[in-house]
Amino acid sequence: MPRLLLVVLVVVAVVVGGLFALSGKAHEKPLTQVEKAVPLANLQK
Fold first, then answer.
1. DSSP state of 29
2. Distance CA 10, CA 15 (A)
3. Please, how many CA atoms are within 13 Å of residue 40, restricted to the half-sphere of its CB?
4. Which ranges constitute the DSSP H helices of 1-45?
């Protein structure tokens, strides 16, 4: 039984560590505005 408990604790520690690692990577990128030329023919509808 103690061996099973040790395996469960190791798995939980790996999962929690992975969650912390992934949460540290999640950063929002700043928005960049892209302007595109629109032909005049597309505006005359």
1. P
2. 9
3. 0
4. 2-25, 40-43
Tokens at 3, concatenated = 């061996």
Q: What gap in Å lies between CA 43 and CA 45, rounded to an integer?
A: 6
Encode pLDDT of 1-45 as tens digits. Answer: 799 999 999 999 999 999 998 887 767 788 888 888 877 776 775
Residue 42: predicted pLDDT: 67
Burial class (CB in 10 A: 0-12, 13-18, 19+), 13: exposed
Tokens of 45: 């509808």
Q: In angstroms, rounded to a whole number, what is the distance separating the alpha carbons of residues 5 and 38? A: 65
Tell me how far the alpha carbon of residue 41 is from its chain's centroid.
Answer: 41
